[in-house]
Guanidinium exporter (Ruegeria atlantica), 103 residues
Amino acid sequence: MPWILLLFAGLLEIVWAVAMKQSAGFTRLWPTALMGVSMIGSFGLLALAMRDLPLGTAYTIWTGIGAVGAFMVGVMFLGEALTAPRLIAAALIVAGLVTMKLA
């Protein structure tokens, strides 16, 4: 169960990061509200997952899901560049996540 909570916490991290971008510096109400709600949900689920998971593992995987997920959303939906160095960086993050999970 803590891994499921952590997965959903990471997915909500993607939501709040994208909503923050869409809020245009907190000048748009609904993206800003979505950011706040998803941020609270993300932190709450992370806190619940940390009851059973080590701090380093939980936090690393949570931020990794958010970082790679936000990168993917940026490329797929926001027109951000998909370059070899960015792909390599994302792959290294994923490799780090897998290593952290196995450790």
Remarks:
- The mean pLDDT is 96.
